[in-house]
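Propose amino acids for all 659 sites.
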């Protein structure tokens, strides 16, 4: 046990937990309050709960009560309490007593935070120094233990994020008294701590329990192997002045109770493998914490309503407390509804919960995924399939990310419709303002459509499955088959429906053009054009309606099911063909630039002539008639300060949105 951090959890049938912790400390162990990466052993009794789950997830050694009993049989007896001094020390005596052997604290660097029940922090620091510990002022790389009391703030969050061992006041006191340190100051410590715990329990509200659940949720979030926590800020308890401000506004008691526990919440996370993220942002109490009407917030809840924002989930969707503007003079807190609404659509908002504790618990259950109050609820205008998929993934068992290696195929999110390619190199950029947004890890990718670019690794994941896109991308897979309906179903699964057209460096392109270019790129350009033309001719011969809406059955082969869900799982043949022609336009530019030949030399004249019958191919015809060498595509938001990221200046850095 010497030098190991141990945690006890669950109910022990034959052991007293406090005595067991003190005995472990005498064996040289450090007693932790929560399971972290720094924990070496977890001792479990009955009903072990979340600490056991977390230990298993982190691969921490777990032992039962029988093993603990056997271990404690070797523990030395507790040292007697120090006798009070017979007389004051002479003026020349040292300011503090010499260090005593105190297993668990001796030789450790500790930091104190929060308010203690039995002593002031200065008194605790003096006792710790007597125990042989070094007391630091801030949490850093050298910190071994953070000892915290009530209302602990940023130091506690910093320690948790660094994986520093945590210790409560009671745990510290147990170690000190076991070593005979503390004397009169710690006399009756157990009774005083028990009285404080009873007082806390008596004054606890439902929000007290929710705040504890939120802290535990954050710990579990940090422990997940598939998640990166990017922001973790839990405010301290709001002071009396702030709580009086809220009461003067006659806000619901739930809100006062929330701020009495946490003066602000800001947690953000993302999956290490895209896509999916979460955010909760409850602002601290300020002069802006008040109910206002539509003239101030423009949410359109109605002229007879006023609202106070409680959770700024995204810039386009927030949760509000909404109540009637008028109330009888001298009345108490008015009933308020908890409504999530998109910007300016308050009248169409939905009730997210019946109380703030219910809201916060539902938010945790949904992983704070943006728009979670709308997830899994039908909406005739908007699909939240992307967010629904993130909630489902969050609730499922965590899956560790697949490492990205040179030569692997990857999927990325730079373009609005996504893309795929092959990894050519990996790079870690120096810390900089640019890297705050992109992250420091980059992947050099040869995009399927032809561009070589650097993409932030946080938008990239290793491809581990085959789908319609991968199968149709094979050059031996002909586009024209006997079952045209099945072929178009697979094509739309691969490249998506036509959503819009957008201008760029090589002209107007349909939204599904870049995926189409990637799908066709494995074929010689002339052969790819011929197959697309043959496919369109086959549709005309079969008498299929180009613009009719066609239903699509989801089968798991889709490149982007969320995009298809946005179109209610329907598409048109013309939308697929337009995407394929747009893809050919991208490939024409790549082919001309690579070979340094004019556009008119890319294909035989008979193929150019066949394009004359297709209205959607006007821009492609123009490229294939050009007497100039076509420029390679240059995508928006490229070349984003490559020097600051220590990347080559001649290759694009795709660090924008892709639109």
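Proposal:
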């Amino acid at each position: 046990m010497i030098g190991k951090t141990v945690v006890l959890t669950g109910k022990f049938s034959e052991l007293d937990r406090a005595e067991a912790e003190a005995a472990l400390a005498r064996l040289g162990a450090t007693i932790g309050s929560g399971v972290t990466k720094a924990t070496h052993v977890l001792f479990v009794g009955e009903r072990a709960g979340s600490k056991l789950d977390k230990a298993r997830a982190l691969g921490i050694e777990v032992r039962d009560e029988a093993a603990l009993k056997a271990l404690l049989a070797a523990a030395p007896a507790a040292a007697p309490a120090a006798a009070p001094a017979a007389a004051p020390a002479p003026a020349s005596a040292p300011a503090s007593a010499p260090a005593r052997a105190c297993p668990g604290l001796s030789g450790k660097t500790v930091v104190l935070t929060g308010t203690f029940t039995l002593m002031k922090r200065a008194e605790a620091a003096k006792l710790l120094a007597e125990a042989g510990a070094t007391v630091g002022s801030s949490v850093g790389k050298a910190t071994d233990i953070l000892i915290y009391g009530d209302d602990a703030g940023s130091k506690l969050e910093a320690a948790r994020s660094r994986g520093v061992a945590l210790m409560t006041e009671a745990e510290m006191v147990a170690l000190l008294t076991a070593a005979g340190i503390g004397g009169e100051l710690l006399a009756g410590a157990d009774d005083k701590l028990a009285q404080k715990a009873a007082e806390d329990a008596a004054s606890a509200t439902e929000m007290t329990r929710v705040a504890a659940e939120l802290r535990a949720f954050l710990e579990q979030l940090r422990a997940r192997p598939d998640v990166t926590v990017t922001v973790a800020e839990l405010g301290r308890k709001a002071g009396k002045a702030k709580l009086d401000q809220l009461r003067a506004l006659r806000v619901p008691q739930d809100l006062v109770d929330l701020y009495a526990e946490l003066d602000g919440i800001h947690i953000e996370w993302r999956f290490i493998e895209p896509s999916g993220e979460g955010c909760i942002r409850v602002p601290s109490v300020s002069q802006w914490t008040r109910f206002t009407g539509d003239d101030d917030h423009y949410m359109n809840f109605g002229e007879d309503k006023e609202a106070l924002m409680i959770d700024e989930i995204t810039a386009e969707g927030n949760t509000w407390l909404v109540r009637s503007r008028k109330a009888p003079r001298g009345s108490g807190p008015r009933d308020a509804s908890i409504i999530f609404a998109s910007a300016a659509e308050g009248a169409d908002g939905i009730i997210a919960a019946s109380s703030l504790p219910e809201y916060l618990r539902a938010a945790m259950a949904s992983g704070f995924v943006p728009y979670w109050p709308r997830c899994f609820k039908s909406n005739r205008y908007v699909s939240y399939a992307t967010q629904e998929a993130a909630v489902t993934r969050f609730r499922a068992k965590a899956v560790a990310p697949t490492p990205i290696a040179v030569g692997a195929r990857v999927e990325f999110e730079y373009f609005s419709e996504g893309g795929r390619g092959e990894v050519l190199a990996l790079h870690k950029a120096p810390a900089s303002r640019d890297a705050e947004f992109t992250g420091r890890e980059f992947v050099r990718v040869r995009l399927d459509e032809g561009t070589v670019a650097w993409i932030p690794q946080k938008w990239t994941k290793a491809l581990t499955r085959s789908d319609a896109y991968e199968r149709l991308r094979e050059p031996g897979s002909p586009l024209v088959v006997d079952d045209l309906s099945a072929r178009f179903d697979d094509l739309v699964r691969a490249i998506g429906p036509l959503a819009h057209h957008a201008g760029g460096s090589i002209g107007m392109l349909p939204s599904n053009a870049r995926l189409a270019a990637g799908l066709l790129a494995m074929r010689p350009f002339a052969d790819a054009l011929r197959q697309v033309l043959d496919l369109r001719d086959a549709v005309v011969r079969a008498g299929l309606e180009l613009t009719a809406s066609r239903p699509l059955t989801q089968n798991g082969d889709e490149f982007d099911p969320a995009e298809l869900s946005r179109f209610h799982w329907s598409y048109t043949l013309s939308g697929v063909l337009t995407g394929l022609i747009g893809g050919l336009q991208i490939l024409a530019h790549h082919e001309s630039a690579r070979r340094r030949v004019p556009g008119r030399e890319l294909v035989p004249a008979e193929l150019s002539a066949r394009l004359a019958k297709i209205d959607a191919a006007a821009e492609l015809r123009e490229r294939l008639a050009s007497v100039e060498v076509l420029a390679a595509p240059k995508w928006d938001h490229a070349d984003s300060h490559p020097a600051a990221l220590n990347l080559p200046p001649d290759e694009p850095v795709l660090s924008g949105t892709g639109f």
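The first helix runs from residue 17 to 26. The first strand starts at residue 5 and ends at 9.
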